[in-house]
Amino acid sequence: MITMNRSRAFFALVLLALAALSSILLALVVGSVTLDAGEVWAALFGRGEGLAAEIVHGLRLPRALAAAAAGGLLALAGALMQVLLRNPLADPYVLGISGGAAVGALAAMMLGVGAHFGLEAAAFTGALAAMGLVFGLSRGDGSWTQTRLLLTGVIVAAGCGAAVALMLSLAPDHQLRGMLFWLMGDASQAGDPWPALLTLALGLSAALYFARELNLLGKGPLLAATLGADVARLRLVLYFLASLLTAAAVTTVGSVGFIGLVVPHLVRLALGNDQRLLLPAAALAGGALLTLADTLARSVIAPQQLPVGVLTALIGVPAFLFLLARAPRGEQA
Amino acid sequence: MVLIVVLIVVLIVVLIVAFIAGKPAPTSRLTRRSEMNSPLLATHDLAVSIAGKAVARDLNLTLHPGERLVLLGRNGVGKTTLLHTLAGLRAPDSGEILLAGQTYAALGPRGAARLRGLLPQHQGDAFAASVLETVLIGRHPHLSRWDWESAADEQIAREALAAVGLGDLAAAGPSQGSHGAPSGGSERSERGGRSLAARSIHTLSGGERQRVALATLLAQQPRVYLLDEPLAHLDLNHQIAVLELVSRRVREEAAALVMVLHDINLAAHFSDRALLLYGEGEHELGDSAAVLDAARLSRLYGHPLRLIEDGERRWFVPAVGLGTLPPSNYNGKV
Q: B230 vs chain A: nearest CA distance in angstroms?
């Protein structure tokens, strides 16, 4: 167990920020047309000219930034969900947000809505609908317990899963591949990355504003209330914040798995469980990991592309198991 | 795209609401002098019930600095409910609670957290944390929103750990050992060289975890201590040490103490006043020496008790043996 103070936390965050930045730079360099660092630098900061600038600005930079933003959003949402449900196994999808988004996106695909705006709108609407449904049902009689929230979320997610399976079985063959890619998570269809990045920045600020109260909540709602936290308000903010962040991420890159579950865990094992450090560290690490995974996904068997969600699982699972096995007994999660 | 912009606007609204709602209610800074003569905790015609069952009716209680009150009653009579109501965590049916002369509404959650602290019955640790981090949680109401715990806060936390006998030599601060740790010496030898403060709370025993929770409460430095079964999981030596520790705190800091205890003899020795909850809202409040007698306690627990005096202290002993068990216990099913 590591006890953090402000300067050590700052040092850890600087390191993670550097890692995130390097993963984005790597994403700019690697690809079917290999650019050297100088060309990327010139394209980024010099006058935009020629093929290099076009590739960097038109293709690789937006995609890398979208992956980074979505990774950060998912990791942050996962960390918040884990505190909200007081369960280290919670992930951003456990309450059915991604299920709702998937139903929306697949329905739009079946109806022949093209990529980009229509698809994003449908996914986002689905996510918000699932969020509202879970919230409304679990609030039912005005009570608001973790168990009830979790059960409602899991059941709504299961319902969405059934709807997704139904649509997959009914969909014509030529649409199946696109649908599967969306379900596994795919950054190649990502549009403008700036809304997602801005959402991440705002969401992180909001989360950090409550960070020390989230530490209290981890010790139990009763103790948190005794020490001056407004637990009911805190849970409401947590639920909506985590849900909106998840909706933004899923809308950007589809339901990429494992980032939201594994990254907060990795950060927790490495840096301890102080939310003031955990939340920004998870956002940076999630961004770095998803960018790295997306770069691999589009280059490892180029020109063919893999869905990035498959790679996040392939990278995340062994890394997680390794850290878990290394952590001393009794100090896990 | 448009939808994401909408989402950003929603986030901004959430942020603004959070900032406005998060502003601590203005609390008047109370000085020790001004409140020395007024009660730290007072209730007026308080009525408390849980699930339609009355816990207390017309409870008028005043607790002055230096006073210790013990809550006694059978299982399920509502001791914890009453304690939580006194802590402002649960609304009473009617009546008023004043903490250092102010209502909880006027104090706000943060203002209240600087004046009263609660030792909950159960410790919920969803995530691993070090012992020191767990104790530092108690400093929360004294820090402003963006503050991190200072060296002074850490010193307070380490002193609190030392006070409950969990101070460790490995990371000794300047004042270690001078704080009269009830059993610091034995603890060190028990645990060897590993720094206790750095250990994960998930590796602690039940009794150690209970003492860490007490250290968290001490680090909070409240004026009113509310303890829900502080002796749970504790060995005999630690039971006495903890009661002596909180009694000393209450005396030295002119604080007040309300605690739920199950051991009548410890309750009689370590309290100034006693509140007996008989159920159905009936209660009796008085000086411990006067109100704790064999007749009342026998009625309170529904079991005959005998008083034994050894010339120095009075001891209440439950009558045991065949035929002494009244049929009312466990509905007579034997």
A: 15
- Whether residue A241 and residue B14 make contact (CB cut-off 8 A), yes or no, is yes
Residue A60 belongs to domain spanning: 6-87+185-326
A116 is a domain residue:
no
**pLDDT tens profile B197-236:** 778 888 888 999 999 999 999 999 999 999 999 999 999 9
Interchain contact, B21 vs A332, CB within 8 Å: no
State which residue of chain A sits closest to B125, comparing Cα positions. Answer: A219
As a whole number of angstroms, the distance between CA A14 and CA A20 comes to 10
- Write out chain B residues lying below 8 Å of A274, CB-based: 133
Q: What average pLDDT score do residues B60-69 get? A: 95
pLDDT at B28: 44
From CA A189, how far away is CA B54, in angstroms rounded?
62
CA–CA distance, A248 with B7 (Å, rounded to integer): 8
Asked whether B59 and B45 are in contact (CB, 8 A), the reply is: yes
For the domain that residue A42 is a member of, what is the CATH number?
1.10.3470.10
Which one-letter amino acid corresponds to residue A137?
L
On whether residue A317 sits in a domain, the answer given is yes
pLDDT digits (tens, 9 = 90+) for B115-144: 999 999 988 788 888 899 999 999 999 998
Q: Which residues of A touch B19 (CB under 8 A)?
A: 209
**Domain membership flag for residue B13:** no
pTM of the model: 0.84
8 Å CB contact of A223 and B137: yes
Q: What are phi and psi of A237, to 5 degrees?
A: -60, -45
CB of B51 less than 8 A from some CB of A:
no
ipTM: 0.82
